[in-house]
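User: ok so my PI wants both of these folded by tonight, can you help

Assistant: No problem, let's get them done. Here's the first:
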Amino acid sequence: MYLIKRLGILLFTLLGTVTHIVSAQDSAFEYSPFQLVLPIQPNWNIAEEGQSIGFQLKTRGGKSGPDSVYFSIVEGKMKDMIFDTLGNFMWTPSYDIADRINTLRSVPVVFKATNPAGESTTQQIDFKIIHVNRPPEVDELRPFYVQYKTQNTYQIDKNAVRDIDSDPVVFIPVAEGMPEGLRMSANGEVVWEPSQTQFNILRKGARYIEFYVEDQPSKARTKGRIKLEVTQTDLPPEITMVPKISRVKSKENTTINIKFFLADPNGDDDITTFNFISDNRDVPSSVIVKNTPTQYEFIWTPGYDFVKDPFDSLAFDITFYVLDKTQNREERRIRFTILNTINEAERDQYLYSLYRGALVNAWGLLEQMKEKEEELKKGYRRAKKGKQNRSVLNASLGATTGLAPVIAGTTRPSLKNSITTVGGTTVMTIGTLEATEVIGRSTKDLLDRFNYVMEKKSDLQNKGDIFAREYSLKSARRTGDFIRKLDEFRSLMNLRGLVALELDANWENKKEATDKAIKRAFKDFSSLEEAQ
């Protein structure tokens, strides 16, 4: 019995030794380094933004079994990543990981596994995240309140239109249903000046216009719309002036013309009155001319007597105003300055009268000289003819006296004495008259005076032609030299020696001083109607 017990103990010991050796050999043969085992599916670490990634990490090797391994993320964990200690990983990348410029982004994450034997291992996994573009978003926009006859401008609120990816956006109008004349820029600015018909349609009910918001460069679109409404605010009328001025400086007898265009944001039929208030009462109310209910003109020509002497100018304000049915008022104030001006027409008439009057006097003097010239010519011819006749008469009477005894003879002695007495007396008387130059005047004196008249007449003709030509135009007579030359020309007609010419101071011209008569005398003469 003892022997059997001893053999059993020995056998058990031997069996345990053998078992231990076999186990040690098996363990030495199966042991491998402790490491992480990654998923084997293709592209398991590649995903688009918004697409979920899920897997379970495992390990192999090590001194302990895989069921007691502890997993963790050492580095690179993002807020949306879910990873438990058992190795279960879940992540849905947000849309801000990549962008339109960097469309593919690598996100490195370091995983760690630890077993009870104290062994640990790490592995970096690079997740490839692909950018996903999202279309813009459009919130409800504020209405576009429209005024009539006004260039209405509306800017789409950039806070109500956004792109989640921060892509630049452009605005594209939808042509269908877009009112005529309405324009939308790529930056979202809407400009529209509705016509009367469009405004009336809009007053009956609101309208909508649609547009696209398109991001760049992906061209993703989202449709939005804007509500068009007539403004409900009772706005005052508007005044537009042409030209747009605040001050007017003008001369007397110069027409001032200002056009006024009226508009009311609530409709032109809301306008009731347009007029002006002047600080100067001499501005008549008739200067306002109504062309249409919304178009007026201010047409005013201040006369030459508007600015009273000795003032050189007159300044005052005129306030133009427009009223609507609710007495809303809009004003435009203009400062007028009117300069005192010489009446050019009257001055031109006065200068012309001086010009023409001088030429009329010259023409009259020429006509008088012509008559004097003819008179001296006739006197000269009579003087020459008178001396010849007197010589013949003297000879005839002398011969008659000498032949008296022969003619009378002895038959009639009384007739002989009569012939001698008459003949002698006549010869004596004619000789006395010739001595005093009563019957036949001196031809030399007549010739001298004739030449003097011709000289003065030629001089006056030449100076008159020059004067008529030099000042035939209005502009020439307006110069300062005109009066000086006029005085010189007048002094020429105050001829010294008029007494010697024996011109009659009471002489009157039998011809009428018409423009044609003056022009025949001075060919360069120009009447007031012809002068420029």
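One down. Here's the second:
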Amino acid sequence: MCGIVGCVAKENCYERIYAALSRLEYRGYDSAGIAMLQEGAGFHLRKKRGYVSNLKGRPLAGEAGIGHTRWATHGKPTDANAHPHGCGKFMLVHNGIIENYLSLKEELCAQGEQFASETDSEVIVKLISRAYTGDFFSAVRTACRRLRGSYAIAVLCSDHPGEVIGARQGSPLVAGASDTALYICSDIPALCGDADYICPASDGEFICIRDGKIQFFDEAGSELCKCFTRVLPESRAETSVSGTFMEKEIAQIPRAIADTLQGVSSLDYAPCARALRAAKCVYAVACGTAFHAALVFGDVVQNTVGAHVVCTVSSEFRYANLPIGVGDLVVAVSQSGETADTLEAVRLAAKRGAFVIAVTNIAHSTLAALADFSIVMRAGPEIAVAATKSYNCQLVCLYYLAAQMQYFRTQAYPVWFLSLRDLPAAAEAAFDCFPQMSALAAKWKDARGMLFLGRSLDLRTAAEGALKTKEIAYVFAEGYAAGELKHGTLALIEEGFPVVALSTRRDIASKTENALAESKARGAQVVLLSQSEESLNESCADFRIRLPNLPECLMPAVAVIPLQYFACRLCLLRGYDPDKPRNLAKSVTVE
């Protein structure tokens, strides 16, 4: 889960790479580095532990360069382990994991090689150096044949100034072009500050920047004919922002929902009509926040359409021995479209003949390319590592997909369908909860743990609220079924323990209230969020927060917003950066 970039530009090459790394930093920020190649002067290298901003300083000279921002897998975050890594006439940056690096390292050590880092990546550059006999491209191809695992690499060779070669296997890599620079990069949004046209590479392909042009080649070394796509203006990430990106992205939720609604409502669903109408079994696969969206989808389809949905975290999907095959439907959800576990789940499903529908934020992602049908949300670039607006937009896409499934089966949309248009206004109305959530964050900033309770769809929202609290505020939190509290977890409740409950389903509100009473009787401080005035008035909760009113199945899209804001405020009050939580990165491209 790292970010890499390569650039060839006659002017400001270092500055361009630095800017791209700044946009890539959500992929990792343990360390960063840039290597520049100057004709006649060789390599100039700058790499440091910590943020990309540590690379500020007088630009290094050169018309070709590579850069890297790291999320550590092999080796601690140190200057020595930071990329780029060099050997002889080569410099390399790498995103991914080389699974056979230990055996390769032992082989190279036996041949007299000495290693300066603890990384698996240094193995690659040494293999390239040993394979080199004057043909830059051939050396990279030869080395890649030895690798097992996932990689996207960018390589410089001092014998070939003005050239950068990239290779992809299992990790994303895209080429980009503008009038003044040519790029390879691990992420489309990172190029959108400069590149006007982009073209993703597929697994097993190579990208060569040389002689002022970009060429693609297959594993055999044959040139490929590829089409470049113009970068849409809304794909461009804004990097100058007051406050944190997470605060900004929460504020963008109403607009992002409105844009996504416009996109999904104009999409032609005919290509997936048969799968939606006649699927023998429906599976939903995703990771992290996207999995919570998948769980909401499963509940809504079951309650609305009457079809059963098997929701499985992507990392378990391949090993669950599920009876998936021809006639089944798989819905895969990933903000980046590059989540490694989800991609592997989709590859397995496709191999067995299932129809795959992707929900992603990136139209040219690997997931979109693998799927039979893609629903691209319009959340816009999301820089903060913790997902906020992308979650709300995933729900919008999945609601619309559930409605289409109902329509293709019954020729009628569900009763809540027209209320989708009310989501942007309801999302904005949810901002009225922020003062109360901010006060709670101040009250609980020293808490050691929290419980988020709910039933049915509220349980999914509770799980997402707990995840946000864990990943950015570093407070242990659990999203828990309210009815299960008395079967063990109630033992955790002590005087002052924070409990947040959601109750948006009126017919079981009294059941949720029982859990609150049990908690309060044992000293908990209890918060209730609901759109029901009756539920709020009759609750024993210490704090009662009114949510906007929508059909119950749509409530997860807005009920989560106060919890997103609460986690952000709690994080800031505890002195942390919500945009860059420790040990995490945005796009998880390793298994």
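Residues 234-241 have pLDDT under 50 and may be disordered. The radius of gyration is 25 Å. Good luck tonight!
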